[in-house]
Specification:
Blueprint lengths: L3 H14 L7 E7 L3 H13 L3 E7 L3 H8 L2 H5 L3 H9 L2 E6 L13 H9 L1 H12 L4 E6 L3 H6 L4 H11 L7 H20 L3 E6 L2 E6 L6 E3 L4 E2 L3 E4 L7 E5 L4 E3 L2 E3 L3 E5 L2 E6 L4 H8 L8 E7 L11 H4 L5 E7 L14 E7 L5 E4 L2 E5 L2 E2 L9
Parallel strand pairs: 1-2, 1-3, 3-4, 4-8
Antiparallel strand pairs: 5-6, 5-18, 6-10, 7-9, 9-15, 10-13, 11-12, 13-14, 15-16, 16-17, 18-19, 19-20
Length: 374
């Protein structure tokens, strides 16, 4: 029997997040594990008058690709992929993994090669989204693998996921709109500022943000959502940061990352675990050592680190910085094959200053009209 929350999630994703309209060409992608949600999305897209295009892939396909593809095959971009990016009106992607560590033993040069090959395609996708020509939404379907990573039972993890998505509300859309109003106050304030400074344990870092646009993430791109972000001025970042949580990519956990920035560039990068992988990712192109994103997490329904970035970067009272590719709608000019979000916890002694004024302490905003713990 289908969990009614899956149907509710599909309704919110199609009607609110992706805002599917009659005649829209809609791509719905996911692994076979996400089939219940993919089918619910198919039904809701048809009801909304869209033209769905379903693409289900086996959970083990990335491992097979990296292990067996030649360099030429790994770099190959199909004309069909290019046409899809140019013609889609809506993209809905559902992540669902059976084994989050499946790629742990893959040579890091392989995923770096793939991300470089798809760099222009990815940039075009983001540009169409920034221009309002393409709407995209990314979500996750709860699996045993994700539950194990989060150190929960599957039922506990399901409750966590659907609560993070605000589906416990009778009217989730109204709940998302309320959070969006609170976040917009943060974005409007920061739009007028020139500098942001973050201080925490082993962290003191400044970002130039003058003239950059802060984006209100209200559940229309990532689902769940709950953050405000911008692209800092490329040559402005100065200082050092120590990430509270592991940064996870291609199945690898990179622990205790410390970065030092000068004139915007990460000139020093260390990690206690998988440092070689970190350096390989940062050296893949010129833009990979510069920041493309600076964000404050505002979803206070998410308070536990689960080793799933879709949720972890939204934790209310955290910040995250993304090395590499920036989002054009913020004004970011940084381009790269990389976009790697890394999360820093500010809930225990962290402070955020905007133009020298304290706006957040211990993970809570000073202004009570901004997002607050429930």
């Amino acid at each position: 029997m289908l969990d009614p929350r899956v149907e509710k999630m599909a309704q919110v994703l199609v009607r609110y997040s992706a805002s599917v309209k009659p005649g829209d060409l809609v791509s719905i992608k996911g692994t076979t594990l996400a089939e219940p949600l993919v089918l619910a999305l198919l039904e809701e897209t048809l009801k909304a008058g869209g033209h769905p295009r379903i693409r289900l892939s086996p959970t083990g396909s990335p491992e097979i690709l990296y292990k067996n593809a030649s360099d030429e095959q790994l770099k190959f971009i199909s004309e069909l992929d290019r046409q899809e990016v140019e013609q889609l009106d809506v993209s809905i992607r559902v992540i669902a993994s059976a084994n989050t560590r499946a790629l742990s033993n893959i040579d890091p040069a392989r995923p770096a090669m793939l991300s470089q090959a798809r760099k222009d395609l990815s940039q075009r996708f983001l540009q169409r989204a920034a221009d309002g020509e393409l709407r995209w939404t990314l979500t996750a379907y709860p699996t045993l693998a994700y539950a194990q990573e989060a150190e929960m039972s599957l039922s506990e993890y399901e409750d966590f996921v659907y609560r993070a998505c605000l589906l416990h509300h009778k009217d989730p859309v109204t709940a998302w709109k309320k959070l969006a109003e609170q976040q917009q106050r943060v974005a409007d304030y920061l739009d007028k500022c020139k500098e942001l400074r973050i201080r925490a344990t082993d962290t003191d870092i400044r970002f130039g943000i003058e003239g950059r646009k802060w984006i209100n993430c209200l559940g229309d791109k990532n689902f769940p959502d709950g953050e405000v972000f911008t692209g800092p001025l490329e040559d402005s970042v100065e200082g050092h940061i120590r990430y509270s949580f592991p940064a996870i990519r291609e199945g690898r956990h990179v622990d205790d990352i410390r970065l030092t920035f000068k004139a915007g560039k990460a000139v020093e990068a260390t990690a206690v675990k998988n440092q070689d992988f970190l350096i390989t990712m940062l050296d893949q192109d010129e833009g990979a050592r510069f920041l493309g994103e600076l964000s404050l997490g505002t979803n206070y329904e998410v308070q536990k680190f689960t080793r799933n970035l879709l949720f972890d970067e939204k934790i209310g009272g955290t910040c995250h910085l993304a090395l590499g590719k920036g989002y054009p709608e913020t004004g970011s000019k940084n381009t790269s094959g990389l976009h790697w979000d890394m999360v820093c916890d500010l809930r225990d002694g962290g402070e955020v200053f905007a133009d020298g004024k304290l706006i957040q302490k211990n993970g809570r905003f000073v202004d009570p009209t901004w997002p607050q713990p429930s």
